[in-house]
Write a structure and sequence with these properties.
mainly alpha
Length: about 100
């Protein structure tokens, strides 16, 4: 949000913050959410870079298209473990996965 808009909202009595403030997340919880989102985004990036459909990725992972969609959306039912295993299966190196995690920090 730009500074002018933020100032205008605060002057009108509104509070501003981020999603962690809104959801009342601890710093650790917010970091975990950011980590999971970064891994999910990287999964989608790999799929798009290769020109693969979610259905094709699902076949590579032995899963379903709907599960891949949930993975890319960082759905609550998707674990970080599943995201990491899937990235490695799709050809990401441990170093690349580590870099995604480091950038999310």
């Amino acid at each position: 949000m730009d500074k002018t808009k933020k100032s205008r909202l605060e002057a009108a009595g509104w509070r501003t913050g981020d999603s962690a403030d809104f959801l009342d997340l601890t710093a650790e919880e917010a970091a975990f959410v950011e980590l999971k989102l970064a891994l999910a985004d990287y999964l989608r990036d790999i799929r798009v870079q290769h020109g693969w459909t979610q259905t094709h990725v699902a076949s590579l992972l032995g899963s379903s298209q709907s599960r891949v969609a949930k993975m890319e959306a960082a759905d609550l039912s998707v674990s970080v473990d599943l995201l990491v295993k899937s990235l490695l299966t799709l050809g990401a190196s441990r170093k690349q996965v580590g870099q995604v995690i480091a950038r999310a920090a």
